[in-house]
Specification:
This protein is of the alpha+beta class. It is globular and about 40 Å long. It has two domains: about 120 residues, Trypsin-like serine proteases (Thrombin, subunit H), CATH 2.40.10.10; about 120 residues, Beta Barrel (Thrombin, subunit H). Strand 11 and strand 12 form a beta hairpin. GO terms for molecular function: serine-type endopeptidase activity; toxin activity. It comes from Parnassius apollo. This is (apollo) hypothetical protein. One of its GO terms (cellular component) is extracellular region. Keywords: Disulfide bond, Fibrinolytic toxin, Hemostasis impairing toxin, Hydrolase, Protease, Serine protease, Signal, Toxin.
Length: about 300
């Protein structure tokens, strides 16, 4: 039955017709920490341990090179009342601030109490610069049930030194605040799964994917009643998009010759991240005031 629902929904998207209301539990942000963050964290950790012990080798594809995305942050979360540790991504936007998704800290059901922030590494559970912090400011109007205002700022306990492997990325300028970025190619990066079914393997390094930014009207067909002006979406055509464990990570474009972060990975459909649905992000230009107040 789930497959039939998905096929009908994708047909509706293709023809520009609404697919009807979507329940919160069918969006990946709501209940993320327990349902996705912790299981993905455990699988990533085991895969990295297998690789480092020589039990497995990289098969197919190449990981992101160290320093290719120096603004990428990995987040390992400790969660109140849960034994396992969750995983998310983030974006270094200054020497002591990381931009992430609010649902990585509180998902509407579970509350994290500490992040281990990982910078300058293509592995999540080893290497790089690692800092622990509980200083997190969520957007005051974060609404988990409708996935609105899904942004948060992490305060690092100390400033990090910039290098070839660690460097903040620029925010959009005020002049770019009115741009939709629709039609542009963007890069999403993260430590998460590379498909719904494959799970996490020993080649699960920091990965990236090139995505096409679509209009909010097109995205709203897939997520009726959810998409707001403060969202930005990418097409899932070709079975591409963000996946489990990528939440909170960056969506980046090159605009006027400079790299800027335009999105924070927020949600997709829980049926699967490679079935053609769009990926949805918090639109950074909608939150410049909030970000600058906390930077």
């Amino acid at each position: 039955m789930k497959l039939l629902v998905v096929l009908l929904a994708l047909t509706a998207i293709a023809y520009g017709k609404s697919v009807g209301p979507i329940a919160p539990e069918n969006l990946t942000a709501y209940g993320y920490l327990k349902n996705i963050g912790v299981p993905e964290g455990e699988r990533i950790k085991k895969a990295e341990e297998a690789f480092l012990s020589g039990q497995s080798r990289i098969v197919g594809g190449l990981p992101a090179a160290l320093g290719q995305y120096p603004y990428q942050a990995g987040l390992i979360s400790d969660i109140i009342g849960i034994t396992g540790r969750g995983v998310c991504g983030g974006t270094l936007i200054s020497n002591n601030r990381v931009l992430t998704a609010a649902h990585c800290w509180y998902d509407g059901q579970n509350q994290a109490w500490r992040f281990t922030v990982v910078l300058g590494s293509v592995l999540l559970f080893s290497g790089g610069t690692r800092l622990e912090t509980s200083a997190v400011i969520m957007h005051p109007n974060w609404f988990p049930w409708l996935i609105r205002n899904d942004v948060a700022i992490i305060y690092l306990p100390s400033s990090v030194s910039t290098s070839a492997n660690i460097a903040p990325i620029a925010l959009p300028t005020e002049a770019e605040a009115s741009e939709s970025f629709a039609g542009m190619r963007a890069i999403a990066s993260g430590f998460g799964a590379t498909s719904s079914d494959a799970g996490i393997s020993s080649n699960q390094f920091l990965s990236h994917v090139s995505l096409n930014v679509i209009t909010n009207s097109v995205c709203g067909v897939a997520f009726p009643g959810i998409i707001q002006d403060s969202h930005i979406c990418t097409s899932g055509i070709g079975s591409v998009g963000v996946c489990g464990g990528d939440s909170g990570g960056p969506l980046v474009v090159t605009n006027n010759g400079r790299q800027i972060v335009i999105g924070v990975t927020s949600f997709g459909i829980s049926f699967g991240c490679d079935i053609g649905y769009p990926s949805a992000f918090a639109r950074v230009t909608s939150y410049l005031d909030f970000i600058k107040q906390n930077i």
